[in-house]
Amino acid sequence: MTAWIVAADKRVASVVELARSLGGQVIAVTVGDVTVGGVDRVVNVPVADGVPVEAAAPGVAAVVTAGPGDVVLAANRPAERVLAGALAARLGAPVLTDVVSLSQGAAEVSVFGGVSRESVSFAGPVVAVVDGGPAAGGEAPSAETADAQAHDAAVTSTERQDVGEVDLVAAKRIVAAGRGFKSEEDLALARDLCGALGAELACSRPLAEGVNWLPRDRYVGVSGQKVSPDLYVAVGISGQVQHTMGMNGSTVVVAVNSDGNAPIFRDADYGIVGDLYQVLPAIVAAAK
Ligand SMILES: Cc1cc2nc3c(=O)[nH]c(=O)nc-3n(C[C@H](O)[C@H](O)[C@H](O)COP(=O)(O)OP(=O)(O)OC[C@H]3O[C@@H](n4cnc5c(N)ncnc54)[C@H](O)[C@@H]3O)c2cc1C
């Protein structure tokens, strides 16, 4: 079997690792100016300046000739999702999202926002959208170039959104703030702790998609970022499964919560039951 990786971005280390675990040949189909290491073959689909990578879908589909048992993997990012969908339509293949595990002919996917898991099996090719992870390292084979295709799409205007540019996936230490914070100004306490620990600031979803105190790329969880730092400090976060699914790859988890029965303590290596307004300044003072 062959595992095909469709990559419009170099941040596909987790995808490469998953493809390798399947045991067959791994071919990366890169779109535009992207390098991917750790694979057996690279086929590049060129994209001219000003053409969105999504427009290369027919070219990508022409390169990927998946057969029974083959897996097509794409990182869970907007451009790759478009390419994955177009490929699935072309191949007549099912699309799997929220993939927890994948092997030849079978997968487990997370459903209902992470509350449950479903086992699925497939005989023909399947397209799976999975977490990309950081940039793929390893030696990059020299790329073969696919036949250029004419694209009748062009970017006519761009509008910059005011989002942060934090790379939580690569962060070694994270302080995550939840609804236990009473106001946006109070996040200064979390920022102080970040400063003391050399950590990045993250949050639960309500702070990014509710009160909008932090940009959306800072929230952790099943529908946000999946992180795996050495240290994850969850402050004022209750620990619903939709949040913990994004941080359960952390090495050490510390939870600060005023409710001793908060579910987050089940996922924590160290727990502090207390008011964050007292606990955080004390930790910061101790760290200094
Ligand atoms: C389909 C779906 C997808 C979702 N995806 C995500 C996701 O990706 N990420 C995510 O985070 N959520 C996600 N959610 C939302 C999730 O279910 C929870 O609602 C959310 O995680 C709760 O955020 P929270 O823990 O900050 O808030 P709450 O659940 O309100 O918890 C606040 C906590 O703060 C504590 N607290 C209050 N005051 C203090 C204080 N002074 N000191 C210390 N502790 C205090 C409380 O005891 C409580 O435990 C999703 C939900 C659905 C339905």
UniProtKB/TrEMBL annotation:
- Family note: Belongs to the ETF alpha-subunit/FixB family.
InterPro entries the UniProt entry points to: DHS-like_NAD/FAD-binding_dom, ETF_a/b_N, ETF_a/FixB, ETF_asu_C, ETF_asu_C_CS, Rossmann-like_a/b/a_fold
The protein's role, per its UniProt record: The electron transfer flavoprotein serves as a specific electron acceptor for other dehydrogenases. It transfers the electrons to the main respiratory chain via ETF-ubiquinone oxidoreductase (ETF dehydrogenase).
Ranges where the Electron transfer flavoprotein alpha subunit C-terminal domain occurs: 167-248
Give the required cofactors.
FAD
Key words of the record: Electron transport, FAD, Flavoprotein, Transport
Q: Which residues form the Electron transfer flavoprotein alpha/beta-subunit N-terminal domain?
A: 14-154
What does the subunit comment say? Heterodimer of an alpha and a beta subunit.
- Protein name (record): Electron transfer flavoprotein subunit alpha/FixB family protein
